[in-house]
Amino acid sequence: MRRAPFAPGRVPLMGHALALHRDGLRFLCELRNHGPVTRISIGPRPVHVVNTPEIIRELLTVQARAFDKGAMFDALRVPLGDGLITAAGDRHLSHRRLVQPAFHRDRIARYAHIMAERSRARADGWEPGTTRDLVPEIHRLTLDILLRTLFADPRDPALNAAVEDWLSVKYHSMRLALSPLHAWAERLPLLPGWRPPDAGPLQRLVDVQRRIIGTYRADGRDRGDLLSMLLLAGGPEGGLTDAEVTDELITLFLAGTGTVSASLAWALHEISRRPAVQRRIHDELDTVLGGRPPRFEDLPSLVYTRQVLTEVLRLYPPSWLLMRRAVRPVTLGGVRLAPGDEVFFSPYALHRDPQLYEDPGRFAPDRWPADAAAKAPRHTFLPFGAGSRLCVGEDYAWTELTLALAAFTAHRRLEPAGSTPVRPLVGTVLRPDRLPLTARARTA
Fold first, then answer.
1. What is the CATH number of the domain that holds 65?
2. Residue 320, domain member (yes or no)
3. pTM value?
4. In a domain, 203, yes or no
5. With the CA atoms of 42, 169, 253 and 380 taken in that order, what torsion angle do they form, in degrees rounded to the nearest 10?
């Protein structure tokens, strides 16, 4: 049995937090040079970082029951609630079984109509020859789609205000979770200058949701939306309580806005810089759609569009850093872990490993065979996680991404505007800081 080596660059009191703050993406990629399992520290908290797909597979599937979500997710529960993203152990498994029916194929087919219609409406408002920063545009689009699939009638001013208020707080949650001050505060009395997350925005959103849930329970109908499915879900131990439903709605707000909007923005960024890729997408959309709007039934035929999105998710996985904590003594990659030991792994670093992907920094949709684009190998491709933590809304996300990408590209050419590089922002998700693009008219 061996001990994992510490990565170089530790700073007194801070550990490796400064390196994560300055350029966390590069830091995580470089850790593979120090071994398959490497130790870092966040303030006083030691963390084991797993750097190979074999050990990640062991962590996520073979020995998954030896781990829960970890101390970092304890910090995230205040702004994010205790839904599937943060829940641990049996609570996570039971909730996953209850939430799964909301994402069955027949339900997603119903949501797809909303996704296509709202995406087309948003894209149609972008006049040829004009330039827009698409980051806020895409945020508004994905939030609009989410509200219309979660709730049959999303026109509640209090709901929209509460969601926007909460979203402004949740984007900072990952930085809090990686803060050395937060780690020190677990060992010492509350430190001057350390501020826990504001629970007010979450509570206001919960209050609005519980009012809506009360209306749904009194009515008792299946309104065809996600909330109806959550309320109708049941199992041997019964259904979800009102408090549990609100937690799962919070989870859907996080995944359905940040994850999808970041991925769509990165896709349009990459496409706009590559005329040849854009022409192939246009050719496919022209052939499959013939000028009409896309439908759910068209998705299997949009093969190259799927390859492009797969490559986008490889280069820019929304969940760039994930975490686990040992709950019992366990050996991982030849390293003995004690209960309470923290483990990190980075889908971003994994996806850019030259041992797994040739020329990993190159955007190359054709690296994904057309007959395998929809089922990229697990444990070397983790944009939606793996094992029991595989994102329950993965098919929902693929559907929305494909339909929205088709809406924004079918009738226009996209060009980058300005010379300032688009930079990645690392927060709860990996997203671009800005995305100024100019639309040009095209004919099919």
1. 1.10.630.10
2. yes
3. 0.91
4. yes
5. -30
Per-residue b or e along 385-419, where b marks 16 or more CB atoms closer than 10 Å to that residue's CB: bbeebebbbebbbbbbbbbbbbbbbbbbbbebbee
Contact criterion met (CB below 8 Å) for 46 and 182: no
Beta bridge partners, 88, equal none
pLDDT, tens digit (0-9, with 9 covering 90-100), for 103-139: 888 889 999 999 999 999 999 999 999 999 999 999 9
- The radius of gyration of the chain from alpha carbons, rounded to an integer in Å, stands at 22
253: tokens are: 């707000």
Report CA dihedral (259, 262, 264, 267) to the nearest 10 degrees. -130
Average pLDDT, the chain: 86
- Look at the chain and report how many structural domains it folds into: 1
Strand, helix or coil for residue 294: coil
Joined tokens for residue 424: 């990645």
Is residue 197 included in any domain, yes or no?
yes
Q: Which residue has the tokens 């065979």?
A: 369
CB-CB contact of 264 with 142 (8 Å) = yes
| Domain membership of residue 422 as a residue range | 17-441
In angstroms, the first-to-last Cα distance of the chain is 63
DSSP letter at 153 equals -
Mean pLDDT of 346-366: 96
Residue 132 three-state SS:
strand
Is residue 338 in some structural domain?
yes
Q: Judging by DSSP bridges, how do beta strands 335-337 and 330-332 pair with one another?
A: antiparallel
Residue type, 112: A
Distance CA 74, CA 72 (A): 5
Tokens 């109509």, located at residue: 113
Within a 10 A sphere around the Cβ of 6, how many other Cβ atoms?
15
pLDDT 10s digits, 63-98: 988 998 776 666 666 656 665 565 566 666 666 777
Q: What angle in degrees, to the nearest 10, is found between the helix axes of 134-150 and 260-272?
A: 140
pLDDT tens-digit map of 44-68: 999 999 999 999 999 988 898 899 8
The Cα–Cα gap between 325 and 310 comes to 29
